[in-house]
Design goal:
- The strands form 2 sheets. Strands 1-2-3-4-5-6-7 form a 7-stranded mixed β-sheet. Strands 8-9-10-11-12 form a 5-stranded mixed β-sheet, covered by helices on one side.
- It contains 10 helices and 12 strands.
- The longest helix has 24 residues.
- The termini are far apart.
- It is globular and about 60 Å long.
- By secondary structure, it is α/β, with parallel strands linked by helices.
- It folds into 2 domains: 201 residues, Metallo-beta-lactamase, Chain A; 54 residues, no CATH class.
- Bound molecules: zinc ion.
- Zinc ion binds next to β12.
Length: 340
């Protein structure tokens, strides 16, 4: 028997309520922010009454077994529903493996609709490429379907520490498109490598070391020579250097990844491509910025000089305006500290 839509909506709202109540218990949210969010949930539930009936996500074929819902290369917003990173699927011999929970419950449901149009096989695993909101918040949908979820240990730590905060930000941004989402931690955490056997398909989860965000991993299909790289690899949009991003380590991790010599790479952001392109816009950019900042430090220059670095070779990339100066400033501050 199907549950009536309004009842389902009510149950989902309760789940959001539970997540928000947990936030308050842990004391990491102000009372007024909590009240605003509660009001938002009540309003979206009462006014809409139904989950947004958005269409299935578009899946682009990469190989006979691999497809990707390519995310927008701009910042997350209500229009793209938080789909600004790549959500990939591997159709293994006995089941489907999904790479990334996606930004929210609704988005994961739309990915599932797209999968059902391709294959009758059940989804058996969900992999989170790291602990960022758009990698794990949709876990809530997959948890409700009974699918096992796996991530790197550092990503799980990140979800425990900042998951509720990611949820709150996502709810404010996605409003009715956030309905149903709650923080669902992965079932399994691993450190360096983890092999998944799905029927006759062998899938390897690999940590190449520090990169963009804690717990970044890649997914390797050796027989197809396809790598779902995750956030170790960007193109078409400028990458972000966070305060905790270890740029020097990322440059080395990139080499370990490239050593696999994959034929096709699905990056964390941007369409499927090759290593040379990703090297140019990821490792190449990080090396360029490091060299420029080293030169400033060598001549006793300051933060203002870092902000003024000519990054125009990358100006055609999306999110350049939002991130270029910020990246230079963050890397300058890290390298300046290290020089002491
Ligand atoms: Zn990302």
């Amino acid at each position: 028997m199907q549950l009536p839509g309004t009842l389902l909506m009510f149950i989902r709202s309760l789940k959001i309520f539970r997540s928000l109540a947990a936030t308050v218990r842990h004391g990491d949210s102000s009372g007024s922010a909590f009240a605003c969010m509660l009001l938002l949930v009540v309003l979206t539930t009462a006014a809409g009454g139904q989950a947004s009936a958005l269409p299935p996500l578009h899946l682009t074929q990469v190989t006979d077994q691999v497809f990707v819902a390519v995310g927008a290369t701009g910042p997350p917003n209500y229009e793209n529903a938080g789909h600004n990173n790549n959500l990939s699927i591997i159709i293994a011999s006995t089941g489907v493996v999904v790479v990334n929970g996606g930004d929210n419950y609704q988005l994961a449901a739309r990915l599932h609709q797209a999968i059902k149009l391709l294959t009758p096989l059940p989804v058996v695993w969900v992999i989170n490429e790291n602990g960022q909101g758009h990698a794990f918040l949709g876990n809530s949908y997959w948890r409700d379907q009974g699918v096992k979820i796996i991530a790197h240990g550092l990503a799980v730590d990140e979800i425990r520490k900042h998951g509720t905060q990611s949820l709150q930000q996502m709810i404010v941004r996605n409003r009715d498109k956030s309905i149903g989402t709650y923080v669902a931690e992965p079932d399994i955490a691993f450190e360096e490598r983890y092999g998944l056997e799905v029927g006759t398909t062998r899938i390897e989860l690999i940590s190449f070391g520090e990169a963009h965000s804690p717990g970044d991993i890649s997914v390797w299909l050796a027989d197809q020579e396809v790598l779902i790289a995750g956030d170790i690899a960007f193109h078409q949009r400028l990458l972000a250097i966070f305060p905790d991003t270890n740029v020097a380590a990322w440059i080395e991790s990139f080499d370990r990844m490239a050593a696999l010599e994959p034929k096709i790479v699905i990056p964390g952001h941007g369409t499927p491509t090759d290593i040379a392109t990703l090297r140019k816009y990821t490792q190449g950019y990080l090396q360029f910025l490091t060299r420029q900042i080293q030169a400033i430090l060598d001549t006793d220059g300051g933060l203002a000089a870092a902000y003024a670095i000519d990054q125009s070779a990358y100006a055609h990339l999306d999110t350049f305006d939002e991130l270029a100066a910020k990246n230079a400033g963050r890397l300058f501050q890290t390298m300046e500290m290290e020089a002491f």
